[in-house]
């Protein structure tokens, strides 16, 4: 019977009139794009949805930087009878607090580009959803099914563009299958207000153009932690590759994301629940040059998306406030301080030991369980640098094991200590950095305008005595007269800079940061 209904029913489309002011539809009303901001993306289907009919959405574009993801559900109200004033900025909580609307948020771990979300309602008023045709998840209960239901879709937060696919019908959920269906652990309704508040704060901050400023004044001293909460215990004492004696004077800074709890000694950070979003943690002091930091990861063992992010900043965490800490660390790159973020870690197992060390030449190297994995990034070592992490997805615990001050490292011309085993892994890291995708690259704070490039880091190429400004690192002939935007390195002549800019995935010869522009410098 369901197959016969599907055969005579036109696939659903987005309603052409009932939509938020930031929504743009394609010519066939099958694709909805939010053009601006993070909100005003509420849409509806153009016809009622049958019981057990799957509304299938492809996540075409996902842009990180906001909090929260797609909201979806059903309504008994006909969108054709709605005026533009009836459609608020948010589905949650604005619409769901009205009678006849039911919607919740898609967990951010599922908000991945090209994922296919399918959701449907059964005759008992239960809403299920699945990702990429995997096992269904019970999402909502208590939907009124005695009358027609239209699908409600809010293109919100990090979800930027969705496409409605052809319908399918779901199988009836038997008692045995229902008992095995997972319950959705999406954020409670009270936290939708928090996500909206955070995004409004982020949007307001974007209005003000910020110029990169690497010379920061720092407030001495660290505040005490007034939020001592018991957390998950440590998993093991030592692992292979960890020195027998570690200094334990470095801990997590009391300033942290609101979804993080610490043990009493602030050596272990844990997420509060499976759907934690704002999980930034910082070291309570700068990491010294040549000092190795060892941390141990722990996770739930569940197939969640997302993992660990690592970064370096010149910002003293004691100058930050909790409400300034976003869910996505990439948004920190718009701040005036120096920030570098790395996200392309491989899949980690529970109990893995990670090590991080900043070399005198600015290279940041890391290892896993005692094995060197090469260089992650290059940083400016002319200022104090704090370490920070975000704990997401499968990772739900991070433990600081301690630090050890290494002996001076001899850096080979290739940029890798010893010039041997680091080379292949460094190339792998650089290949990731060449990507133009913000979610897959190592990102560095950029200036707001090409007219004010950031100060060139101290690890710029050496200048021969025969040339005032140094030789171009590409042709080794002409004098350096061009700065790269956004990394700020000044290592090219204008001719080579223009040629390099035209290449596919062009990147800086020094730090491998993607080149957005090259700017010629004129000296008096």
Task: Summarize the structure in short.
By secondary structure, the protein is mainly beta. The protein has helices at residues 2-8, 91-95, 175-180, 190-207, 422-433, 494-502, and strands at residues 14-19, 23-25, 31-34, 42-45, 53-62, 71-75, 101-105, 116-121, 127-131, 137-140, 150-154, 159-164, 168-169, 182-183, 252-256, 260-262, 268-271, 280-283, 291-299, 308-313, 339-342, 353-358, 363-368, 371-378, 386-391, 395-405, 443-444, 482-485, 517-520. Its EC number is 2.3.2.27.
3D architecture notes:
By secondary structure, the chain is mainly beta. It has 6 helices and 29 strands. It has helices at residues 2-8, 91-95, 175-180, 190-207, 422-433, 494-502; strands at residues 14-19, 23-25, 31-34, 42-45, 53-62, 71-75, 101-105, 116-121, 127-131, 137-140, 150-154, 159-164, 168-169, 182-183, 252-256, 260-262, 268-271, 280-283, 291-299, 308-313, 339-342, 353-358, 363-368, 371-378, 386-391, 395-405, 443-444, 482-485, 517-520. A hairpin with a 5-residue loop joins strand 8 (116-121) and strand 9 (127-131). The longest helix is centred in the middle third of the chain and has 18 residues, at 190-207. The radius of gyration is 26 Å and the shape is globular. Residues 184-191, 205-238 and 408-468 have low confidence and may be disordered.
